């Protein structure tokens, strides 16, 4: 069954089919229908990115230390929360990684909340988007581990506490690390897909009042899943940058 095109996807396919096909060709892919190279999950991500850029472009000039506005208050609370969590989990140097934690949290949160808007879908209900976020987190915490400890010291973690255990520990550690992006992907995708489907079912059965409860649940799940994803990323960063004593 072909995917139902959302309004933004229709716009992209109508006016930007050429650039879409060109981008696919650059990565060695081809659209099954050259007239429709853009998928819903791609256009929804683009909308999330445009929203984030616009939001901070509006917020930045309005930042005022003496008379902060409501939007500034919201982001200050969010910053203090993530700052505190990073210090608690990663350690006193946790705020050095706050830019990544904050970016991941906001992107996933706004992507999750897209499903609340009528005629839109959460891009995180498609496995490609959670997988992309998970791979970013996976690459980031490993790069930070190499940077903080050096290549050899970081790789020594895979050998376990003693050299005789290395032949056993190395395969276990490799499988454990490779399972992390899979776990992050499945958790975010499964929860957002289930939340989206439940909301859609009740919107079809009872168009008034009752779906509002499930839309509220969708908002709660959106915040919770964004937090869990970033919390686990913090845990992985903490494990990669800590020095053995």
Write out key terms for the chains shown.
245 residues, mainly alpha, globular
User: What's the alpha carbon Rg, rounded to whole Å?
Assistant: 21 Å
Beta-strand portion reads under 5%
* Averaged pLDDT: 89
Overall body shape:
globular
Q: How would you characterize the largest beta sheet?
A: none
Number of strands: 0
Treating each run of at least 4 consecutive H or I residues as one helix, how many helices? 9
Which structural class do you get from the secondary structure elements?
mainly alpha
User: What portion of residues is helical?
Assistant: over 70%
Low-pLDDT residue intervals, each spanning 5 or more residues: none
Report how far the terminal alpha carbons are from each other.
57 Å
Give me the strand/helix succession: HHHHHHHHH
Describe the structure.
This protein is mainly α and 245 residues long. It has a domain at 96-241. Helix content is 71%, strand content 0%. It contains nine helices and no strands. It has helices at residues 7-15, 17-26, 40-59, 70-89, 98-113, 128-149, 151-156, 166-205, 210-241. Helix 3 packs across helix 5 (98-113), helix 6 runs antiparallel to helix 8 and helix 8 runs antiparallel to helix 9.
